[in-house]
Description:
The chain is globular. It starts with a strand and ends with a helix. The chain is of the alpha+beta class. Helices cover 35% and strands 23% of the residues. It has 8 helices and 12 strands.
Amino acid sequence: MYIKKVVLKNIRCFEDLEIDLTSGKGVKKWLMLLGDNGVGKTTLLRCIAMGLCDETSAAGLLRDSNGELIRKKEDNATIELKLKERGKTYTIITKIVKEADFETIKQKTYPRGKFPWEKIFACGYGSNRRTEGDISYDSYMVANAVYTLFNYDYPLQNPELAIRRYEEQKDKRKEICRWIDEILMLKRGSTRVTNVGIKVRDKSGYMIPLGGFGRWLSGHFDTGSRHVRLGDVSRAKEKKIEAFRHCDNRRDRSTSSSKLAKKNSLSSCKSVSKYSIYSSNALSFMCRWYRRFA
């Protein structure tokens, strides 16, 4: 399923917000939100997360939200999501009602009848930049997959354990690896499960751990203010080595300038490294969701 439209009413800074994710070619698959602190980016993501959950799970996420979600001087708020799947449109309307000292949730789905909750797949990440994933679940739930948006201390998932559960189902494990290739924009066959972990093949032909994929990206993208083209990771590494050698040969100039050069040479690597954590965590959720149809 893909999100077709998001409508928020009377939710914090949003009095009446409508985001249409359709275009002439169908539903858009990518959307980037940009804005200053406090303009409502996190609120929007949390509303989408709650809207994708069933009523019980959405109520649990609401309790972990900081402060009231309903706009001041209002008695209720609405989160409306329109989803599209194979030509069919589904609607989830989540209504938040203010009681005496708390807020409650009521939900309706359209069309009437049994709603295909099992076809919804979502992942969400909070602002806490964790570097490890060690928790595991036996089954997939949207509430678990988006919980770090509400509780920043919640641990990430273990991606390798999730995919190794398909040890005896090699065809399905290969399909998941193909999904990883598409998500990470790699050539087909780049992702493999080895005896020492999940690895991906970089442009130079080397197999690197999935957890180190952020360092591989640092050779292709510059995260600074300048727009930098795609490049070969090996050439990027050579430039970093040259920067170190240059600093070592010019020690007589200034120790501080040497440290600054080293810091700049590794800045892009540090800023992109968290990408590997998020891609790995998404893999864990994807494997558990896939088991529903196995």
